[in-house]
Write a structure and sequence with these properties.
Low-confidence stretches: none
Structural class: alpha+beta
CATH topology: Translation Initiation Factor IF3
Largest sheet: 4 strands, mixed
Mean pLDDT: 79
Distance between the termini: 17 Å
Shape: globular
Order of helices and strands: EHEHEE
Helix content: 25-40%
Number of domains: 1
CATH class: Alpha Beta
Length: 91
């Protein structure tokens, strides 16, 4: 039987700040959500989206970032490979 999908969403409140980024990554890694959304990524586009790529690397997910025009409050969804959740049929 396929594993249930785990979803998580987190509003980082105006970017969350660099001082909290390690704690955020630790939490996301421990929770192991299959799909999670992060909102209010203010400043995460700096340094070529370094902060987002750090989360991607720490959690083993792939981001689908969406930039906004207002206030640089970007949003993203990150996905883990979902093969463990898909039913496999014998042929």
């Amino acid at each position: 039987m396929p594993e249930p999908l785990r979803f998580l969403t987190w509003n980082l409140q105006d970017g969350g700040g660099d001082q909290h980024r390690t704690e955020q990554q630790r939490y996301l890694t421990a929770e192991r959500p299959d799909i999670f959304g992060l909102t209010e990524l203010r400043g995460w586009e700096d340094d070529g989206w370094r902060a987002l790529h750090d989360v991607e690397d720490a959690t083993g997910t792939s981001p689908m970032a969406g930039e906004t025009r207002d206030y640089r409050l970007h949003n993203t969804e990150l996905l883990r490979a979902l093969s463990d959740h898909l039913p496999v049929s014998a042929t």
